[in-house]
Amino acid sequence: MARDFGRHAYGAAAIIYGALTLYWHDLNTWPQLAALAKTPYRDPVVDIVAALLIAGGIAVQWRRAAQLGAAVLGAFFLLVAVLCIPGIVAAPQIYNNWGNFFEQFSIASGALIAYASLASGRLPSAERAAGIGRVLFGICVISFTLEQVFYLDATAGFVPKWLPPGQMFWGIATTIAFALAAIAVVSGRQALLASRLLTAMLVLFGFLIWLPALLASPHSHFNWAESTENLAIAAVAWILADYLRRACAA
């Protein structure tokens, strides 16, 4: 059986998240968890979150423990997504609040796809659960498209200035790419190709945008958090591609 590289990348992202939590010893990677950090039990909460992320990330690496790891990580990122809802209710006209929800929810959807794909052949509902995860992730990709549309200037600003033909060109091109990927993933038509291309695009984001940012400012919490989130979402697209590849081969 081919290795599930997407699952391994997903676990690696979770381990990095846990390491960041320990290094800065706070929950600032997820502003939604800020209220937990203000309790009298701040230190134990931080340690528990870090331990869950690292343990879940490690468990995902081994097939026998991967379902448990996926369940732990899925529950955590679902909680973070749910905690974004008060911000949406308070200011629904600010799309960044919606974007924060769907970014975290996309990572949770990856855990569902991974869990279901590992259960294939043992649970009758595994294929249906994976299909639900695919659609949920596709909806999140729609949000990524809208986020880039609403913040197109900021999106273009992330593109390296040396990359021809220009920053705005790539801002628009990647927005269109997100839109096409969303249609394919939600509809299920050409979803394998779309998930592969989406994975490649997100990996390129990591190399062209976030790796240089980390090298330029290695002590920036923001750069580490954003680069790890990019890795996690790329891993979800990869998990979906791995699952669809196996489904097509079956």
What report would you give on this structure?
With 250 residues, the protein is an all-alpha fold. It has one domain (5-249). The protein has eleven helices and no strands. Helix 6 packs antiparallel against helix 7. The longest helix is centred in the C-terminal third of the chain and has 29 residues, at 221-249. It is globular, with a radius of gyration of 18 Å.
List the helices and strands and how they pair.
Blueprint: H1 5-24, H2 34-37, H3 42-61, H4 63-82, H5 85-90, H6 95-119, H7 126-150, H8 152-158, H9 167-187, H10 191-216, H11 221-249
Helix pairs in contact: 1-3, 1-11, 3-4, 4-6, 6-7, 6-11, 7-9, 8-9, 9-10, 10-11
Question: How many discrete structural domains?
Answer: 1
Q: What's the overall average pLDDT, rounded?
A: 94
User: What is the overall shape?
Assistant: globular
The overall strand count is 0
Largest sheet: none
Find the structural class using helix and strand composition: mainly alpha
Compute the number of helices.
11
